[in-house]
Amino acid sequence: MSLEPKAAPQVARPTRRTLLAGAGLFTLGFHIPFPARAATLGAAPTTPEVNAWVVVKPDETVVIRIARSEMGQGTLTGLAQLVAEELDCDWARVTTEYPSPGQNLARKRVWGDYSTGGSRGVRDSHEYVRKGGAAARFMLVAAAAKGWGVPPAECRVERGVITHGPSGRSTTYGAVAAEAAKIEPPKDVTLKDPKDWTIAGKPLKRLDTLPKLDGSQVYGIDLKLPGLLNAAIRDCPVTGGSVKSFEAAAVSGMPGVKRVIQVGDSAVAVVADTFWRAKTALDALPIVWDEGPNAKVSSETIAAVLREGLDAKEAFVGNKAGDVAGALKGAAKVVEAVYGVPFQNHATMEPMNATALWTPERCEVWTPTQNGEAALAATADAAGLPATSCEVYKIHLGGGFGRRGATHDWVRQAVLIAKEMPGTPVKLLWTREEDMTHGRYHPVTQCRMRAALDQDGNLTGLHMRISGQSILAAIAPQRMVEGRDPVTFQGLNPGGPEAAIGYTIPNILIDHAMRNPHILPGFWRGVNLNPNAIYLECFMDELAHATGQDPLAFRLKLMDNHPKHRAVLQAVADKIGWKTKPPEGVYRGICQTMGFGSYVAGAAEVSVSDQGELKIHRIVAATDPGHAVNPQQIEAQVAGSFVYGLSAALYGACTVKDGRIEQTNFDSYPVMKMDAMPAVEAILMPSGGFWGGVGEPTIAVAAPAVLNAIFAATGKRVRQLPLKDTDLRRA
């Protein structure tokens, strides 16, 4: 199969605006504290806040504080819309800022959870941020009414202007904000019905677009501080290995080099006046590794362990009903298949980085993070200081996808380096090679499926055995349930608000034989929903063809008790024209799943040449997230998710040799290019009554829709990804 990405044309890159040292750095109202101790929320603000969520300045600028992280997914704009909706302010005057996790700790977590992952940015905080906006509105109106000596009930608000109905007098939020801050906050507020929204639910322009376009957006990689030094680091390429020795004297005299530092047991860093000088010296530094017990592990040895798990007698059960063994024994026909997915890298455009400033009394860190509170905990632990003596300042992320959420290894390294240079800010920046060698990879799994079919082609039993890694066992063992990792079963559960299978099968068993190689797993965008959707939806396609049934009709027969699953599946079928003949040489595939609280389905049109060259022409996706905060943003998320999902399906594989990941840059770990990207048509169909995510669910339907279409085109089943390793010439 020919899937080699074409070389991208060379284009001129705009120069990023130089950051200037001073009392504060501002990008669209985002405040990066600098110098830190003078510009945190703990310092006396020029303008008093109305409440923790809202500051209204005398010039009518409305600052909305956002605790969740912005990494391209639009959470910043969506949450600001929800607050502004209840506040009834002028959207044109809205700016935003990140409150720091240290202040959240000091104020008894007034901003709630800082974790931004699992498509939870909006759906897990919509209620309390809306209440924050509504409470601020109450206080502003009460302040105006108090000044006029009238009942607040006689006042109305429109776009930040408060008007007293009987007298016609009016004032603005900015004029009464200082007095509003003195008003007792309401104990309870009534939130608007979504049908009455005028700001939320609308396709408003994102607040962070312009700074990204003109190059003024500040990312962690850009940050400058007075006296800043730069660090490059190299960790043992084999997880579990350590530093045996290194020769600091060999590079200590190189230009700009300040220090050579061992970081923990397994890494060495060079600190210099510029990053390039630090990296150049590190490249020249003689290091001897003790690669430890994992140095002989390979993709082949890992695959053998997973194959053993497919036949293991013991496994953790995630979904069970009826008697699967009996159904298989009495079946008119049994269909069996084994699928698998490899390790995959997050491959964020911005490598891991953090800037740390350590003194014996205090430690401060500036970093892109999906979870400011977790970054603060990592900072305090590495600094050897209480969390109350530490602070983390969040910066926009140049990609996250889960890598910058659950683990903060780069933050710990930055602090340990800064401890060796007290009072000097040090920016640690991983190289691309370091970033890809020391990721937290999408877990490798295999899945064997066996289905029982009766003489009429009805599915009477299904056994799915997943063999592979547990993310929680490695990252959050406290979240395990009696040894079982519930995340493994995303999209395969019998029901619930997070993810449900969507089919009624009388006899079912889905279990997990946990096998954990030394390559560390992590929450990779879409997590276990992605492979599980491939396994189930491609196998459903196999069953339909094995019984001579239409793949859509076969699924719909099993979905009478799952109306929301059925609705999105039918929507993509109708949109792509499932019942009509496609263009000559074009073939279709279809699938559905549920994850992260949302119902999604996908349909793809592909062609495959006689030489096995795949062309994905079109993808249709339907999403029911319950409520839609910004429809335009959701459409962009859907399109972006297909870039991510198709990149993984076509190219994404990390292989292991001599205990280490072999793919260290984009030459060996390619991603989707624009000329290969299909047209994406998004169907947004919010049914109300619940809050689902939109950043991750549709990733899961990218691969199975295409894989099922490939079978229709070629008669070949692709059961092991990525596609680049498969000969797609017709069977």
TrEMBL record:
Pfam families: MoCoBD_1, MoCoBD_2
Residues covered by the Aldehyde oxidase/xanthine dehydrogenase a/b hammerhead domain: 214-293
EC number assigned by the record: 1.3.99.16
Top enzyme category: oxidoreductase
Keywords of this entry: Oxidoreductase, Signal
GO MF annotation: an example: isoquinoline 1-oxidoreductase activity
Stored InterPro entries: Ald_Oxase/Xan_DH_a/b, AldOxase/xan_DH_MoCoBD1, AldOxase/xan_DH_MoCoBD2, AldOxase/xan_DH_Mopterin-bd_sf, N-heterocyclic_Hydroxylase, OxRdtase_Mopterin-bd_su_IorB, TAT_signal
Signal peptide: 1-38
Record protein name field: Isoquinoline 1-oxidoreductase beta subunit
Organism name: Methylobacterium aerolatum
